[in-house]
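USER: For my understanding, would you kindly supply a protein sequence with its structure tokens?

ASSISTANT:
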Amino acid sequence: MTSIVDSAIAYIQDLVLSSSDTIIKNAPDLPVDDASILPLAITHITGGTGTSEDASGAKLLLNVAVDVHFDRQSIKRTYQQINAFIPEFLRRLAGDPGLGGTVAAIVFPVTVTVEPADWGSIVTHMVRFNLVLKFRETPLP
């Protein structure tokens, strides 16, 4: 299951990176003090539920957050980037609800929040997409 989840997260991250004319980078392993790294994105699990439907299958619903941090040096430019990014990313999610075959489905609706945040010591403006991903698995005997 781990490789399936990792594949779905990697696929979402690729969608993020291709959803803007602005170059969005993968988040580094550790927060840095240099705002030149922005904008950056990280996709991560925030929770979920698992159920056994019967002896032949199990369903896992994972809550996944997609956090995209934008530079706040110029609020006008920040919101121009955010306003262009949000509909394009949602369009790509809707166009591929199976995420390239890595999940059974994205459970819509997808929620979006925009708020000030911190990445390490850098103050950013963050767009967070909350997705629910549905996985179906065959249980082990």
The mean pLDDT is 91.
